[in-house]
Amino acid sequence: RKERRALQPLDKIAERKPPAPDAEVLPLNPALRQTFAAKQAHDTEIRPSTKSSAESTLLAPSNELGDDSGSSRSSPSSDENPKSTDGTSELVGDSTVLKTPSKPKPSSKDAQSEYNKERGSAKPLLNLVVIGHVDAGKSTLMGHLLYRLGCVQKKLMHKYEQDSKKLGKASFMYAWVLDETSEERNRGITMDIAQAKFETPGRSIVLLDAPGHKDFIPNMITGAAQADVAILVVDATRGEFETGFEAGGQTREHTLLVRSLGVSQLAVVINKLDNVGWDKNRYEEITTKLRAFLKQAGFRESGFTFVPCSGLTGENLVEPSSEEALHSWYNGPYLVQVIDSFKPPERPVAKPFRLCVSDVFKGTGSGPCVSGRIEAGAVTNGDKVLLMPAAEQGTVKGVMVNEMPTQQAFAGDQVALTLSGVDVMNVTVGSFLCDPAVPIRVTSKFQARIVVFNVEIPITRGFPVVLHYQSMSEQASVHKLISQLHKTTGEVVRNKPRCLTKNSSGVVEIKVSRPICVELYNEFKELGRVTLRSGGSTIAAGVITAIT
């Protein structure tokens, strides 16, 4: 990990300003690195080298932060913001080329038809993030689920069992499926986003296991920004649920964060219910509190489902529970059934290509490799892409989706791309790859409509914050307070307020320490959301309304 970070120009950024205290780098799945390295080595061989009222207004259907169900404005045509693509011959002179010929770049209409043709009969893809308070059992739950679904070999699981016993951590054996680093295993907590893939009868799932510890909230935000749906895990043990749910716990903050980032479908796992003897009263006590909170946070009643489970024993994960103490009063769905019922979002395939870089590394070839989720549009092997804000044009030399090489990838896909014509030192976490004909906007100031959470200190002009946007975090400040809005109607109640207090909403101007890539919410709702943090806590979230 140290070697990878050295390849990124984070040192240069540090010279210009103090690093963002909340900034963290999303690690790439180690298996993906190995696959890329093996592929590039092979290619080189065969070819010659050349609880507040703020919570109650958060993302309600017509409130300050926008309606997820609303349609976005049609994407701009390729005639707008034209950009010359001369100099192509200089960009394609890379020594490593793919064996398969490149397809011509499709138009927006063609991209949609290609998507329908290629994915029409396939299982819908869902990016799922797992959230919750530290030690709620997230990694154990999902590790056991992956094992029960046949995604982990028995021989490897046996090794995890033996190794965890040697360290006196036998109960962590399933968590080790996702917690791969020695530090995570020794400390018994998830520190980085872990990725895995599995399938249900009707869905293809990319799993993002997020850290629950408060110190690693920036990594959690990075994972949540790539998610379509979420699983919230709470610990049913007496005292443990209360610790995570009350003020200072991560159950509330994680839930508010995923909602502010656009997630509207949630599976709520009441984990470790076996610790209280599958007590129905305890289950109902927890679900009653959570139901009220989730509605206040902006989730519709139809958008969340409660599931009693045990991540350690595997009860109610992939089949109905045989535990009589649970079966006697619960006849609802098991976890896989809930995941299978999630509705896939509509993918903005016809919009201009946008990908936010979540990791960058240098492969065995001459060009860098980048990974991230395609937020809009499509990318094809051989496409010209524009790296922003560096304004450097390059060529896509390889496309991989879920560690498998392919010719084309679409909005919603978790991809890794090999590039030529791009200097690896110009690629950072938070950079964007985009369509050269319709580049993403770059600015250091923008206006946002925000909801302020339960803050202790009012937000005033010049208030310092850490801005979280997609995979990026940057030092910023609230440069101007433009207006205060009514909490329910959204109408302006005061222009140029002196401050925004807890549970209020308003329009502000954000000034970032350096130019960043952003989009307007009404044009790219996938890229129009921001989160503000200060002092290790999330203080506000909102949508970008104007770029200044």
Topology of helices and strands:
Elements: H1 2-7, H2 10-16, H3 30-46, H4 53-57, H5 88-91, H6 108-119, E1 125-131, H7 138-148, H8 154-166, H9 182-187, E2 194-199, E3 204-209, H10 217-224, E4 229-235, H11 240-245, H12 250-260, E5 266-271, H13 280-296, E6 304-308, H14 324-327, H15 335-340, E7 354-356, E8 359-362, E9 368-376, E10 378-380, E11 384-388, E12 392-401, E13 404-406, E14 408-410, E15 414-420, E16 432-434, E17 441-452, E18 459-460, E19 463-469, E20 472-485, E21 492-495, E22 499-500, E23 505-518, E24 529-534, E25 537-547
Parallel strand pairs: 1-3, 1-4, 4-5, 5-6
Antiparallel strand pairs: 2-3, 7-9, 7-16, 8-9, 9-15, 10-14, 11-12, 11-16, 12-13, 12-15, 17-23, 17-25, 18-22, 19-20, 19-24, 20-21, 20-23, 24-25
What's the short version?
This protein has helices at residues 2-7, 10-16, 30-46, 53-57, 88-91, 108-119, 138-148, 154-166, 182-187, 217-224, 240-245, 250-260, 280-296, 324-327, 335-340; strands at 125-131, 194-199, 204-209, 229-235, 266-271, 304-308, 354-356, 359-362, 368-376, 378-380, 384-388, 392-401, 404-406, 408-410, 414-420, 432-434, 441-452, 459-460, 463-469, 472-485, 492-495, 499-500, 505-518, 529-534, 537-547.
